């Protein structure tokens, strides 16, 4: 029975190479369903997806491996940039000697510059890509024995992403973001990332910008953990004397803790990568860390909202749609976007880079409607410290399975990613959030429904706010990103003091 397969071919840059690979696939009855090659990015790497029986696929792999086309590992790459100072007058064969030494060491010349009528007639500039790191010293010693050598750059991570080894270098650059990822996993991920690049390139985007944005996610998350962690936070007293804490980590969604004294409730957890930093922060600002949190509400399946839930020894409450998205690892599931490669691969990328640990003990909200709040079905209620919390089901504009939380007598409305005070975000948070918009073209799986939800939530907030004002209080809108805010003439205005936090040195 035919199955879908994918592989990466690394071919010589010469006429007929692609034809040779295609002919091998044809000979063994393989059917190519996707192919992508762009010499502007990498002139040697071709991505294939195909259908074939397992036996046919193995024969294809064996044949490609036999001619050296099948890429089965990601070797470390050393990029070496240097000046060679040639004696004058120049003698015939000097350049030939240098290039011969490079070739014998398996080095690929990716850049060369020399002009004896230019500003530096005695200087030859060469950039080499050397896959076998043990040969780097061999090349350097050979050249040093004959000419004066000035090394300008030596990069063992492939920071200079040129078109000869782009994908190998890119894999090495993102490897630190992935933990213990082996080469087989990295090659599979590269295939998925290439599919995203192909899709966005077809929409007119610069392919190198796509790779740059993917790398930026991993770099940002890595640099803002540990000693690089920071947060904005609000500590607000509610009408009954309880407290609400809102934490905005460097990237991703806000984390809320409602503390009623005898019980603590967490609404959304943030990224898994920030779990330890947030616990440390809570202790530093006078709270008992995560102690006493008895339940977690995951408003939806995105990693910045449920990605640390599995690190808590308490149950997480969520919509059955959120449960399904966690299982299939595709944020587009249950919407008209579920077959889009951008949604599926973005979910994989962000879950990996952010150390997503989804909830293990999941308690699902009921599926039947027990009431309504405007256009939103009420699907559950639960008591806490004498207050009633209502669970409202979204229309699925941002993501299938998103829920909102309302405590009407406290004036608390948790609107997740459907309504938030975007203007309260700092520039660095706005920039980080824009990456997701770029990679999936819209963070909402259905923009029309998302707009409808925003208007309905704002109307609900105005209604609750009118009631709360009679008690000398306000409706607090707790959006999935940004500051806790209050409604003012159709806009959201940040409420109370917003404090800055960094780990003490």
Describe this structure in words.
- By secondary structure, the chain is of the alpha+beta class.
- The protein has 4 domains: 3-66, ACT domain (Alpha-Beta Plaits); 78-155, Alpha-Beta Plaits; 166-223, no CATH class; 226-502, Ribonuclease Z/Hydroxyacylglutathione hydrolase-like (Metallo-beta-lactamase, Chain A), CATH 3.60.15.10.
- The protein has 13 helices and 23 strands.
- The strands form 5 sheets. It has an 8-stranded mixed sheet. A 6-stranded mixed sheet has the order 15-16-17-18-19-20, with helices on one face. A 4-stranded antiparallel sheet has the order 5-6-4-7, with helices on one face.
- A hairpin with a 2-residue loop joins strand 16 and strand 17.
- Helix 6 (183-202) crosses helix 11 and helix 7 crosses helix 12.
- The termini are far apart.
- The model is unreliable at 158-163 (pLDDT under 50).
